[in-house]
Each structure stands twice: as structure tokens, then as C-alpha cells.
Amino acid sequence: MNKLELMKMANEIRKGAVTAVYHAKSGHPGGSLSAADIYTYLFFEEMNVDTADPKKADRDRFVLSKGHTAPGYYATLANRGFFPVEDLTTLRHVGSYLQGHPDMKHIPGVDMSSGSLGQGISAAVGMAIGAKLSGDDYRVYTLLGDGEIQEGQVWEAAMLAGHRKLDNLVVIVDNNGLQIDGNIADVNSPYPIDKKFDAFNFHVINIDGHNFDEIAAAFKEAKEVKGKPTAIIAKTIKGKDVSFMENEASWHGAAPNEEQYAVAMADLEKVGEALCQM
């Protein structure tokens, strides 16, 4: 995909995430929207995955450590072709395979069940170590929230990753600055995030998480790093492209009502129209 196609796909993924949360009447739109560009680049450009064979042995692995942003993840998997886009409207419904957090047993394309914050990166580190021990060349990617990195388990995993020189591991931090209780700097500041990962022997890259040129360059750079895991610190906007959700902590875990949903979709339609004119 070229950059414009990636931008259009990210907009479709944002629409899918908002639609899923609206139909569920619960869920986490804010962080799904902030991570949409990262999701898009990973699944449409970066990762070796196969919708016809989701469990193929040599596939790259992805772990959504901040599992509550499943709506954005599911919208990405659906648009990538792992399951029908129409199924997004069943999010969190009784009997649906699209649960509130990712479930590797029932959702095609999901490599790890996650949701308990701090644990996903540990699973990703284990996968990366496994690849090293077995001599496989697949790569492992994990997406963390910036509030999530207040969890001690994140740094235990980071210490092991640095110690084991896991250059097949890429940790992405969605740094949108907000968590359920407000500004991360006020709740329990993790800053400076980059210097912390550097101290754990990571190669660190700071980017604008909505700029596909910077995203592409970061993942390219990560592939060239030897003897260290990479941490990509992506500065993002919570609720990106939905006017009333942007930079509002209250939209961390809330569903839009009918009127709000209409406004959100109109906002995203405008973004799509602007992209079509580029």
C-alpha cells in the first residue's frame, strides 16, 4: 500500500472501531482511535501474516498488550480479511466471538489472549525468546498503552528482553497521554519513556504515531537493529479524528449514544472525503 491507501484504511479502521463500540454500548474507543495508524501499518504493510492460514508457523506475531483497545484491533483484522467486517457490530454481544478483550482461541488472527495490563509484553518476550531458541526468523510486535507502562511487570519483561538481546522484538508504546483516570503525567508519570527503555538496553525511536512516513521509517530501522530489542514511542492523539473524543480522557472507556455516533461517523466521513481529494 502507498501512504494515501494506508491513510484511507486507517480511517476505515476508525469507523469500524467506533461502530463496534456503538453497537456494543460499551468498550474503549479513545485508545482504539489513537492506535489506528499503527494497527494499519503493522497488518497491511509490516507483518508477514496470511488470512488464509492465520496460524502458519512462520508468521510474525502480534500481541495487543493494551487489550481493552480490541475494537481497533478487530476492525483491523476484519478489514485485513481475517473475518467479515459485518461481524464488528456483534462486539461484546452474548454468543459473539468478538469479546471485550482479544481471545486467541476463537478469533482468527489473534496470537495471544490479553487484557490484564502489563502481561502482554511478557507473552511477546516469551514468543521472541522461543523464536531465538528454535532458530525461527519470525518477528514479534507488541502494542502497549502509556498508562499500562505504569505496571511493574512491563519493566520486568523489558529487563529480560534487553538482557536476551531480542532483536526480533518490537515494543510500540501508544503515547496518547491519557488513561482512564486522566493525564498520565498526573496519575503516575512514566516520563521520560524513551530514556527508561534505553536504560533497559532497547534501541529507542520516537515518532509521530499518525505520520506514516515516520511509522514506516521506524519499522524499517527496527529491522536493521542487531543485538537489541526496539521500542517505538509513538506520540498520538486519544480519540483521533472524532471531534468530541480527541484528547478527552472520558472517552477512554465509554460508548457513544445514537446522536454522538452520528457525529463521529460524520467526522470520519469528512476525513475520508478529504483523503479522496488528495
Automatic annotation (TrEMBL):
Q: Which domain of life is it from?
A: Bacteria
Q: Which Pfam families match?
A: Transketolase_N
CDD domains per the UniProt record, alphabetical: TPP_TK
Q: Where do transmembrane segments lie in this chain?
A: none
Q: Mention one GO molecular function.
A: transferase activity
Q: Which cofactors?
A: thiamine diphosphate
- Kindly provide the name given to this protein in its UniProt entry: Transketolase
From which source organism is this entry? Faecalimonas umbilicata
Taxonomy of origin reads: Bacteria, Bacillati, Bacillota, Clostridia, Lachnospirales
